[in-house]
Amino acid sequence: MRGALHDRIVARLIAERRSRRLTQAQLAVRLGRSTSCVFRYEAGARYIDIAEFIAIARALDVDPLELLRQAEADG
Fold it and tell me: Model pTM?
């Protein structure tokens, strides 16, 4: 079930990707996934589970726990 926290987590992931000046395609390569997969989760068309969240955060060189704390504080 998606909710406000999930939306804030996705927003944080997008902000981190952009701050690193990475395109969706570049992030997809780091993840070993398709560009459309990254597009879908950023657009809200795909739910991110915890394992995938950790992989994305690591691909962005972000501490997953800190990102969660930030997303929770944004609420």
Answer: 0.91
